[in-house]
Amino acid sequence: MQSLKKVKHRREPGHLATATGIGLVLVAGAAFVGAFVMHLVGRPLGWSVMAVVGGMSALGLAGVSLISGVAETHAKRLQHKEEH
Q1: What is the pTM of this model?
Q2: Euclidean distance between the first and final Cα of the chain, in Å?
Q3: Count of CB atoms within 10 A of residue 35's CB?
Q4: Residue 51, exposed/middle/buried by CB under 10 A (0-12, 13-18, 19+)?
Q5: Residue pair 65/18 in contact by the 8 Å Cβ criterion
Q6: According to the per-residue pLDDT averaged within each range, which of 5-9, 52-56, 66-70, 73-77 is highest?
């Protein structure tokens, strides 16, 4: 039997995982732009390769972080459904 008493839920501040993912996407974009600029300026190839590798790893971490945020949100919705 379900309780008629309303369950109060705290408002949570933003999702940390999602915010981290968005920040990492911005870092990856900056790394790719930096690699392109270094290529145009004529820096040795190693510098632009390092920037591209850094950008790719930042994108990978951003993907994991964003997926974690989506999974957390989905789990909270399921838990909320079970409470009612």
Answers
A1: 0.67
A2: 10
A3: 20
A4: buried
A5: yes
A6: 52-56
Distance of CA 68 to the CA centre of its chain: 8
The closest alpha carbon to 51, from 31, 67, 66, 69, belongs to 31
Tokens of 2: 């379900």
Phi/psi at 13 (5° precision): -65, 175
Q: Residue 65 in contact with residue 24, Cβ under 8 Å? A: yes
Residue type, 40: L
For residue 59, the number of C-alpha atoms closer than 13 Å in the C-beta half-sphere is: 11
How many Cα atoms within 13 Å fall on the side-chain side of residue 19? 4
Q: Which two tokens stand for residue 53?
A: 């590798």
Q: How far is CA 74 from the centre of its chain?
A: 16
